[in-house]
Design brief:
This protein is of the alpha+beta class. Helix 9 packs antiparallel against helix 10 (about 290-300). The chain is elongated and about 80 Å long. It has helices at about 5-15, 15-25, 30-35, 40-45, 70-80, 165-170, 205-210, 250-255, 270-285, 290-300; strands at about 1-5, 50-55, 60-70, 85-90, 95-105, 125-130, 130-140, 140-150, 160-165, 180-185, 190-195, 215-220, 220-230, 230-235, 240-245, 260-265, 305-310, 315-320.
Length: about 325
């Protein structure tokens, strides 16, 4: 991630803590490595004489920026106190390109080697995810992100709808056993439904469910099962893909997900309420976030008025409003 004006971003994040919480939930590899960099991040942001670069991964997490020679001693001391790696290279004029990191750093990232803005003030930050550059703009009322040729954002009315070609990535679970296309629908009253598109009907999920008892076919529709679960009545359908919902009409309206599908509309208060009511259930299912993570995410989501996004091969767009 390349930040054009790091001090301004720091002040923005201080006013909108929900973004930090949601980012930590969505990118656990970045959040775990960033904790050790927090003491030096503010010092680097204050002294940077150009864009600040942040990166994360399995082998290394770090920050880099051009700084004046007069500021080197103080930054070195902060990095040494945190037992962080340090590298510096001559930059333009009297500047020095420094990198502070945790892990094994191969080639020092060049803070200035980033796509230039199309016009003055065209971006507040750039974020590279899965080989795609995103232009980010931070405003008083929210955050917008665009990549390539931005597609039109979806319209979902008062509902929350999420469709993902890789639900496990959306949940921050990387290459977990749940790497399947999925869809989520949350009604304004808190009713919800989830579909896992590539999960076959005779999977372990259904076998375990039947073994738990309380399952019976819905009269007049043998393709739908009723389950009197410990969390209330749930309706389960096996085609197309296993789907679970709190009401029949939600089960019927669940979107279909395919590989490559990435779009959604999220109402923070609605999703937070649904997460809170199902936190205990999620905590007992393998491969899903813990109850503590769900509670933390729900607290952050309550601050989000609306978030919409769509990602396509030719471009993507995200809009978040408080």
């Amino acid at each position: 991630m390349v930040v054009a004006q790091a001090p301004r971003l720091a002040r923005w994040l201080a006013r909108h803590r929900a973004v930090g919480v949601l980012a930590a939930a969505a990118i656990p590899a970045a959040s775990s490595g960033a904790r050790s960099l927090q003491p030096v991040a503010l010092s680097l942001a204050r002294t940077a004489r150009g864009p600040v670069v942040g990166w994360w991964g399995a082998s290394c997490t770090g920050l880099a920026a051009p700084v004046a020679r007069a500021d080197l001693a103080g930054l070195r001391q902060v990095a040494a106190l945190q037992a962080l790696g340090w590298r510096e290279e001559a930059g333009e004029g009297d500047l020095v390109d420094v990198a502070v990191f945790q892990g094994s750093l191969g080639t020092t990232p060049a803070p200035l080697a980033v796509p230039p803005p199309t016009r003055a003030g065209a971006w507040s930050a750039l974020l590279r995810v899965r080989g795609r550059w995103w232009h980010l703009r931070f405003t008083r009322g929210g955050l917008t992100a665009q990549s390539g040729t931005p597609p039109a954002l979806p319209e979902c009315g008062g509902e929350t709808r999420v469709v993902s070609g890789d639900l496990s990535f959306l949940l921050g679970r990387g290459a977990s056993p749940m790497s399947v296309p999925g869809a989520l629908l949350v009604a304004p009253d808190g009713g919800w439904g989830v579909r896992l598109a590539d999960l076959a009907a005779n999977t372990r999920l259904e076998r375990v469910g039947r073994a738990l008892g309380g399952w019976r076919e819905l009269p007049g529709d043998p393709s739908v099962l009723q389950w009197q679960s410990p969390w209330g009545m749930l309706f389960v359908s096996a085609e197309p893909g296993v789907a679970v919902a709190t009401r029949l009409e939600i089960l019927a309206r669940l979107p279909l997900a395919t590989s490559g599908s990435e779009w959604g509309c999220l109402r923070g208060e609605v999703v937070a309420g649904a997460l809170t009511s199902t936190a205990a259930m999620l905590d007992r299912l393998p491969g899903l976030p813990s109850q503590e993570q769900v509670t933390l995410a729900a607290s952050a989501l309550r601050q989000v008025r609306q978030c919409s996004w769509r990602i396509e091969p030719t471009g993507g767009q995200l809009e978040l409003r408080w």
